[in-house]
Amino acid sequence: MNAVFEQILHVVEPGSTVLDLGCDDCALLEQLARERNTLGRGVDIDDRSIQACIRKGISVFHGDLDEGLKDYPSRSYDYVILSRTLQQVRDPKNLLLEMLRVGRQAIVNYPNFAFWLNRLQLGIGGRMPENRELPYSWYDTPNIHFFTHRDFQRLCREEGITVSQQVYLSRGRVIPGFLPNLFATEVCCTLSLDV
Amino acid sequence: MIQSPNGVVIPRTVTLQLDQGGFVLESGKTLPEVTVRYEMYGEINQAGDNVILLLHAFSGDAHAAGLHHDADRYPGWWDDMIGSGNAFDTDRFCVICSNVLGGCQGTTGPGSTNPQTGQPWGMTFPVITIGDMVDVQYRLLRQIGVNTLYAVAGGSMGGMQALEWAVRFPDMVQRAVVLASTARLNAQGIAFNAVGRNAIVSDPAWNGGNYYDGPHPTRGLAIARMVGHITYLSSESMRLKFGRRLQNADGAKLDLEDQFAVESYLEYQGEKFVDRFDANSYIYLTKAMDYFDLASSWGGLDAAMARTRSRFLVLSYTSDWLFPTDQSKEVVYALARAGKDVSFNEVVSPYGHDSFLLEATLQRELIRAFLSGGTV
């Protein structure tokens, strides 16, 4: 996770405003506030996460991402962040577009289901992938949409979304962009709408 | 005998020092004198920056914590949230709660004597607003030397006052805790208040509000309270608490004497209420709630919220149908649009509107976290 944090810290401009969807205990927002002097707000569905954020003095909303971002005005944040959650929401395309309506830029990181080990487990083993990166059995996984890095790129092209920065990770480490759809376990990218 | 960690507390009463014209209300009318009763738990520090003002709900009063005497049957209404090491930590904060203007527990209201006539005000008492209540609290605090508030906090009508405080005196309020409340009551809430008022004025003993030297309109007031109690509970909490149980275990005789447990509960709540509440206060306070509308008073909700300079904690409760979550969200998103520091949580609770008085455990954690949270 730290490599993702580092990547986000690297991208976010000092003094900007950040909305973190699925903020958990606000560790990211706290680090951003400390190192980038950002003004952040978190959204989470879990009471314990909300308590943790409030204790840290970070403002947080109880909210369900499946209800979308309808209450947020357009262009009200510099960055809207969604970390490891896109595959868990009911309507990922809509949420992505909503993030780009509310934020000038979106930072998304998502698991790449085409990672070679997943391919091996499904293609040769004939069973749904279950490994350190995907530690769930098929019957109790929060992941309801399975997509690959290439699928995501295609969606961006179709929806007129510019991918301005892209970082590939394997098991928490940044890796070079060589055959990323095969070697990356997750991808972190910065998005904006084409003008 | 009941114990309270806050011990025995002594209410204090002050008369506001007013200008020649008296206390000018939002309606433009004036009150020649205003007396305020309040309670205080913990001590004001040297810098005077540790004061928390608690704002009571419609039928609450200044007695938020502790006992009035050793043989008291109940402690103050928020005794389980106030005290040494508690959410409102009296080791750290000076907690103040005052009776609202228009009430009947020691602060000037329709049952007080009009100094110009020597008679109780009754229906000649001017209409008061949530803003007037807050204005009285402001003057009380200034008079006792409090110039800044670490926080204001309240639920329901108390939450309305907390919001009004943050909008009306933005430089004085550093934090606001708003529980089960709204920036404006919805039609359903106004409707229930209207039924309560109708029950009171239909009681022959009400006599146009002039009953202070005779029998009080206890039946009308009790019925108003019964209706109120239904709105404070939820279908779920009523099912759990009473179900279809009969008060007598013998089973239904199918005569009109049968009483369900829920009926006798409402009867009891009604009867208990008339001993401590004034029917005319019921009318004035419900009217104040009905008229409360931050949006219309300050040129729109966004404009109202833009005035504030506090950090906010807003909580709503899943089973509260009197002050439902979407009303809290309306406030929360208006604050967010104005770029204010606001946290919001919808607490899962079966107790209806009363949840804010009953969900002590989670609420204690959230409020404690909010009051101790620094600004990053």
Descriptors:
heterodimer, A: 195 residues, alpha/beta, Rossmann fold, 8-stranded mixed β-sheet, 8 strands, 33% helix, globular, B: 376 residues, Rna Polymerase Sigma Factor, Chain: A, 2 domains, two-stranded antiparallel ribbon, 12 helices, 35% helix
- Low-pLDDT regions of chain A: none
Q: Count the E strands of chain B.
A: 14
Q: Which percent band covers the strand fraction of chain B? A: 5-15%
Major beta sheet, strand line-up of chain B:
1-4-8-5-11-12-13-14
Radius of gyration of chain B: 21 Å
Radius of gyration of chain A: 16 Å
Distance between the termini of chain B: 46 Å
Instruction: Give the termini distance of chain A in whole angstroms.
Output: 32 Å
Order of helices and strands of chain A, N to C?
Answer: HEHEHEEHEHHEEHE
Query: Taking strands numbered 1, 2, ... along the chain, how are they ordered across the largest sheet of chain A?
Result: 3-2-1-4-5-8-6-7
Strand content of chain A: 25-35%
CATH homologous superfamily label of chain A: Vaccinia Virus protein VP39
Are there runs of chain B of 5+ residues with pLDDT below 50, and where? none
Domain module count of chain B: 2
- Number of H- or I-type helical stretches of chain A: 7
Summarize the structure.
The complex is a heterodimer of chains A (195) and B (376). By secondary structure, chain A is of the alpha/beta class. Chain A has helices at residues 2-11, 27-36, 47-55, 92-102, 116-124, 149-159, 180-183; strands spanning 17-21, 39-44, 59-62, 77-83, 103-111, 161-170, 173-175, 186-193.
Question: Would you kindly provide a written description of the structure presented here, covering whatever features stand out?
Answer:
The complex is a heterodimer of chains A (195) and B (376). With 195 residues, chain A is of the alpha/beta class. Chain A has one domain: Rossmann fold, CATH 3.40.50.150. Chain A has seven helices and eight strands, in the order αβαβαββαβααββαβ. Chain A has an eight-stranded mixed β-sheet, with helices on both faces. The mean pLDDT of chain A is 93. By secondary structure, chain B is α/β, with parallel strands linked by helices. Chain B folds into two domains: 12-185 and 293-372, 3-Layer(aba) Sandwich (Rossmann fold), CATH 3.40.50.1820; 190-285, Rna Polymerase Sigma Factor, Chain: A (Orthogonal Bundle), CATH 1.10.1740. In chain B, strand 2 (23-24) and strand 3 form a beta hairpin. Chain B is globular. The model of chain B has no long low-confidence stretch (mean pLDDT 94). The A-B interface holds A 29-30, 33-34, 39-41, 47, 50-51, 53-62, 71-73, 76 and B 311, 313, 329, 332-333, 336-337, 339, 341-348, 362, 365-366, 369-370, 372-376.
